[in-house]
Specification:
It is a single chain. By secondary structure, the protein is of the alpha/beta class. It is built from 11 helices and 6 strands. The protein has a 6-stranded mixed β-sheet with strand order 2-3-1-4-5-6, with helices on both faces. It is globular. The N and C termini lie close together (10 Å).
Length: 268
């Protein structure tokens, strides 16, 4: 690991907050999320949140904290498994369409159609032609969703190689995390560079003004969770919003820009 990345990792961990402050802040933000849900139910809004990132980047934990106190009738988490033979013979986006939000619903995708740009690309689960077809059509697909009234938010959680290695190792020894262990885990480190290149291409080709990417420096899971929630709350309208509480840290959560690929803000 380079000296620059080691220094960045150390500074991120040093900036962490205490567990008490984390829990107190999280509770206040979850109250804001309940306010938000009351508003979008009343207004018949359709909200879709996509969380992408490397294995062990913190998607599960972030989603758990977002939905913890929300109404289960209007909140759905979608984490699709391996595609069936029928799925593979269908239009690629078809199996995702069935899970899109209707009016009054908040849907969170724990990984999404961007599997084709990441895991499938790196592990050879799709052809080059299938990958290129996806990259050429995904923005049109998302623009169509937004035009139909879906509020779409795309977050990419980025962690360092050292942090991913630590978290994947922890999965294997923690009895409460055994369900997370996957044969793909060992490949995540082995193919680190390939995943970085796939991530870079995905962000560059699927970021657009209608459906932009928001990047999250997620080495510190507490700060990542809090700031994702703050960013989300800040971008949606609802009554009685606590403006002071929901200001995200721009060093943790920030809009994608092509310069992020070269200025050290994303793990290489």
């Amino acid at each position: 690991m380079s000296k620059k990345i080691k220094e960045r990792d150390a500074s991120e961990h040093a900036a962490s907050i205490s567990k008490k402050i984390y829990k107190d802040t999280l509770l206040k933000l979850q109250i804001e999320l309940v306010k938000l849900q009351r508003h979008f139910i009343k207004c018949n809004d359709k909200i879709l949140i996509i969380l992408e990132g490397r294995d062990a980047s913190g998607k599960d934990g972030t989603i758990k904290r977002i939905v913890q106190h929300l109404s289960p009738r209007e909140t759905r988490v979608v984490a699709l498994g391996k595609p069936s033979d029928r799925d593979r013979s269908s239009w690629y986006f078809q199996r995702y369409v069935a899970h899109l939000p209707a009016a009054q619903e908040l849907v969170l995708f724990n990984r999404s159609w961007y599997n084709r740009a990441g895991v499938e690309r790196v592990m050879g689960f799709c052809t080059e032609a299938e990958h290129e077809e996806f990259m050429g059509s995904v923005s049109n697909f998302e623009n169509m969703l937004v035009r139909s009234g879906v509020r779409l938010f795309k977050y990419y959680l980025d962690i360092s190689k050292a942090e991913q290695t630590r978290r994947l190792k922890d999965r294997k020894t923690d009895p409460l995390k055994q369900w997370k262990v996957s044969p793909i885990d060992d490949q995540a480190i082995k193919h680190w560079k390939a995943y970085s290149l796939a991530r870079n291409e995905m962000l560059a080709r699927s970021h657009n003004p209608t459906a932009p990417w928001t990047l999250v420096r997620a080495n510190d899971k507490y700060l990542a969770r809090l700031n994702i929630i703050k960013d989300l709350l800040g971008r949606l309208h609802y009554a009685d919003k606590d403006e002071r509480l929901i200001q995200p840290d721009s060093q943790i959560v920030f809009p994608y820009d092509v310069s992020n690929l070269e200025n050290g803000q994303l793990a290489k």
